[in-house]
Each structure stands twice: as structure tokens, then as C-alpha cells.
């Protein structure tokens, strides 16, 4: 079983430093929860044809942006005040990187909401909604599991998320090919089908960002960077 996060990052002589790290982690997870909700509601607005929900998602993107800026500032202040080393420095640096991924997930939610409004105005596309629901469910699960892996410092779960990203890529490519074929057969639906294509692309990017978060969790726990490495090498790092 992985060690609990507080067991690893909560043993400093300075109680104030412990509190600062705990606050940083808590605020990161709060932002993660906000972004999860943004993706969920963006998909809801698309499937239900609800422009009010879509408008709310677009408006709430400003809150996500503010969370990113606040967390970046908090992390930089910890580095300046505490000059953390080793595992603590890995935590703070990883949070800065993962916050950027969460902000970009928020951007993808905003794009989906924008496409939802466009489709509400033009009329639903004749194809692609089944694929949207399927891929959305997959990447939402990845994002949730990535945040959970961070909360519990679970490198094995993080590795599973990295493996799941390949499946999302394959599902996206298959859905895109099917949609392109449909558009070639009936050009009257090109505009609406392109909106669906952009939604599928946005969801695929959410999976990529969840994978990036998982890679940073492994870095935090194991102290080795598994970006741009083979899956075999990542498995070695996690298993070692």
C-alpha cells in the first residue's frame, strides 16, 4: 500500500511549513474538483442542448484562471521562504506543473461549451454523440483517478492512468475516422459534424492532461521523470 501523503510530506520541524504544504495540496485538489465539474457540465450542456449551462461553464472559466494564478503565487512563495529540498521541492514543482494542466482542462471545458452553444443554434449533428458520451466518461474517470493518485501519492494508480491514455487516443482516432467518412458521404452536415469533431478533440486533450498529472505523481513519489519514456521504463520506475 502507498504511504499516506501526510506521512511523507508532513514531518517538518516547522509546523508552519507543514501547514503551508497541506494548504497547497488542498487548494490544488479544490481546483481539480472545480475543473472536474466544468468538464461534466460542459458535456451536460452539449448532450442536453442547454445553453444556460454552457454559458455558466464559459463564465466559470475565469474562476479556474484565478485559481491557477493564486496557486502559482502560493507555490513560488513557499520556494522563496522555505527553500525546500528533495521531496518537498518535487511536490511544489509538480504542483506548479499540474496546475497548468488543470487550467488547460478548464480551457477544454470552455471549448466544449462553446461548441454546445454553436450546435444549439445550428441544430444537433446527426452523428458523434454516442462517441462523445463514451470518450467523455473515459477521460473524466482518468482525471478523477489522477487527482486521487495525487491525494494518496499512489504511483501504481498513476501508471494505470498513463496506460489508459493510449486507449483514449485509439478511441478518438476511430471516432474521428467514422465522422470524416460520414461527412464525405453527406456534405450538408459538415459544419455541425466539425463542431462534434472539435468536442472529441477537446476530450482527447483532457485525457492527455490527466496523463501529465499522473506522470508528475510518479515524479513526486519516485523522484524520476517518466515523461518521454517508454511504458516499460515507467513500469520499472514504479515497480522499483
From TrEMBL:
| The entry's keywords | Cytoplasm, Phosphate transport, Transport
Keyword ATP-binding (UniProt): no
Primary location: cytoplasm
Q: Which GO terms describe its cellular component?
A: cytoplasm
Q: What is an annotated GO biological process for this record, any one?
A: phosphate ion transport
Q: Where in the cell is it found?
A: Cytoplasm
Where is the PhoU domain positioned along the sequence?
29-115, 132-217
Instruction: Cite the SUPFAM superfamilies for this sequence.
Output: PhoU-like
Show the stretches that span the lipid bilayer.
none
- Signal sequence coordinates: none
Q: Which family does it belong to?
A: Belongs to the PhoU family.
Do you know which PANTHER family this protein is assigned to? PHOSPHATE-SPECIFIC TRANSPORT SYSTEM ACCESSORY PROTEIN PHOU (PTHR42930)
Which NCBIfam families does the record cross-reference, listed alphabetically? Answer: phoU_full
Assembly and binders: Homodimer.
What job does the chain carry out? Answer: Plays a role in the regulation of phosphate uptake.
Protein name in UniProt: Phosphate-specific transport system accessory protein PhoU
Q: What is the source species? A: Marinobacter fuscus
Amino acid at each position: 500500500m502507498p504511504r499516506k501523503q501526510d506521512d511523507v510530506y508532513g514531518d517538518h520541524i516547522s509546523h508552519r511549513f507543514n501547514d503551508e504544504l497541506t494548504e497547497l495540496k488542498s487548494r490544488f485538489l479544490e481546483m481539480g474538483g472545480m475543473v472536474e465539474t466544468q468538464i461534466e457540465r460542459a458535456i451536460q450542456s452539449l448532450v442536453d442542448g442547454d445553453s444556460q449551462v454552457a454559458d455558466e461553464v464559459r463564465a466559470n472559466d475565469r474562476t479556474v484562471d484565478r485559481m491557477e494564478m493564486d496557486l502559482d503565487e502560493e507555490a513560488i512563495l513557499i520556494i522563496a521562504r522555505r527553500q525546500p529540498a528533495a521531496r518537498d521541492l518535487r511536490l511544489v514543482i509538480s504542483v506548479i506543473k499540474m496546475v497548468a494542466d488543470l487550467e488547460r482542462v478548464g480551457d477544454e471545458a470552455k471549448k466544449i461549451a462553446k461548441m454546445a452553444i454553436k450546435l444549439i443554434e445550428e441544430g444537433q449533428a446527426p452523428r458523434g454523440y454516442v462517441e462523445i458520451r463514451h470518450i467523455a466518461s473515459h477521460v473524466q474517470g482518468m482525471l478523477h483517478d489522477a487527482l486521487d493518485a495525487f491525494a494518496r501519492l499512489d504511483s501504481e494508480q498513476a501508471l494505470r492512468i498513463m496506460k489508459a491514455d493510449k486507449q483514449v487516443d485509439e478511441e478518438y482516432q476511430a471516432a474521428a475516422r467514422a465522422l470524416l467518412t460520414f461527412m464525405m458521404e453527406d456534405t450538408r452536415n459538415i459544419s455541425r459534424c466539425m463542431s462534434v469533431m472539435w468536442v472529441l478533440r477537446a476530450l482527447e486533450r483532457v485525457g492527455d492532461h490527466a496523463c501529465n498529472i499522473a506522470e508528475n505523481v510518479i515524479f513526486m513519489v519516485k523522484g524520476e521523470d517518466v515523461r518521454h519514456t517508454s511504458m516499460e521504463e515507467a513500469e520499472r520506475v514504479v515497480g522499483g
